[in-house]
Amino acid sequence: MNFSQLNNPQTNLTRPLGDQTTVIDLADRDEMDDALFPLTATQSWFTRTKQRRILPFTPVLQEFTSISALEFGKKIVFNIGSVNAGDLLFSVALQIQLGHWLPNDIVDKLQTNTLRYVDPTTAWYYANSLGSVIIQRAEFIIEDQVIETIDGDFSNIYSSLFHDLNMQFGIAYDAYGKVDIPSLINQPTTKVFPTSNGFITCILPFTFQRIRLQNGFPLISCREKTVRIEITLRPFSECVRIASGLRTSCDDTPLGKTFVFQPLSGPNISVTASSTIPAFADARLVTYGMMTDGKLRTALLKAPFERLFREIQAFQFSEPKKYVINTGPGMVRLQLPIEVNGPLEEIIWVIRRKAVSLNNEWTNYGSVLESEWSQDTPGKGMLTYGTLQVNGISLIESYGDYFRRSIAKDHKGGIVAYNSFIYGYSFAEEPGKHNPSGWINTSRTSDVRLRMDISPPNGSEDLEFEVLVYCISLNWIRFENGIANKLFNS
């Protein structure tokens, strides 16, 4: 090479000099290289080809504040637009920094273990799995049309059933503040808040979040300021628990009560809790979305199109004994009418004792309460036999454990979902995947019924129970001229 050419800007250096055009790999190749990047490959992932479709995306994380007061028992509203949240919306979560009913100095001493309760059974805490429990109702709304409605129970079921063990661990401990009953009974008094930092993250598993990065909701296809999320929070009295396991009433709270603490040295001290509900130190809605560009953005913005989505149809039977068709020794047979519409992909249900309200154990779907639990009497499932009927014909019937194993096996939840006493049956070959793989069209049926043989619990408290049923069905949304409507509303 003539180095004098480098000093001459007029010299044409548009192509490499010399005859050598082969790229030599100086590193030794191993079996992994041959598997991932074979020498005989005819296609490269390192260069762009004209045949491959490239969609440009830019991730966007945004925080939104509520246009209404953020308090226990109130409805909070968040307006979401594509200008801030992104063209495609993939995930939403409500993040709350909790306050406390005890003075801040007492809270700090409890967390540093320099102060402890004289009687630990009198200690009050936030409810187990507060991140899901606090959500009484959440609605995804466009204009005045409710696209989907979920609640805290479905959020808890979704997190236990649809996620693998690694993700469940993070959600339970860092987001919801959820532990099992033995850990709850032995909870240390230093754990003042459900999570280590005092923040809870309430995951809102709307349809676009249940299949991450594959089913984003096109905010850009809706007119600005027409998309909102309305969340109703549970009252404070339904979000606290006492260490003894039983409150004096369903309205009992730690507000205004006096607690006796023992410091590391010196006499015991008495502290009276605040008489007002603790305010949230901070609360916001966090969204994860994507900005698009090119032909995709133009199509989402201007072209009419329809999009498939999975809709949650929830049914709560708070008085299931109205549907009793037979009784026997230690058994109650129910026949519940499931008024579901559209292509039904899977049906999920749980059975919960009404006595959970005595200490706000809303995520306990077993037969034993916290106050009744022991190593000799662990919880068990209350469903002994179940039958799913369509038009009077039994599609599937089996023992209760089959429905626990079936739904847990079909999803990533595995043993966690099984031990949570979640029942269900899926008509899809691969439920939870982006592309539907099976369903039953309930719009062409006259009735769908869930027949169950339930073994009532033998606890010392209220033996009544309720049944929560969630049907995941297919529906479509049509977008045109900034307007979005569900194709099938009922």
Automatic annotation (TrEMBL):
<feature type="domain" description="Major capsid protein C-terminal">
    <location>
        <begin position="337"/>
        <end position="484"/>
    </location>
</feature>
<dbReference type="Pfam" id="PF04451">
    <property type="entry name" value="Capsid_NCLDV"/>
</dbReference>
<protein>
    <recommendedName>
        <fullName>Major capsid protein N-terminal domain-containing protein</fullName>
    </recommendedName>
</protein>
<dbReference type="InterPro" id="IPR031654">
    <property type="entry name" value="Capsid_N"/>
</dbReference>
<dbReference type="InterPro" id="IPR038519">
    <property type="entry name" value="MCP_C_sf"/>
</dbReference>
<dbReference type="GO" id="GO:0005198">
    <property type="term" value="F:structural molecule activity"/>
</dbReference>
<dbReference type="Pfam" id="PF16903">
    <property type="entry name" value="Capsid_N"/>
</dbReference>
<dbReference type="InterPro" id="IPR007542">
    <property type="entry name" value="MCP_C"/>
</dbReference>
<dbReference type="InterPro" id="IPR016112">
    <property type="entry name" value="VP_dsDNA_II"/>
</dbReference>
<feature type="domain" description="Major capsid protein N-terminal">
    <location>
        <begin position="49"/>
        <end position="253"/>
    </location>
</feature>
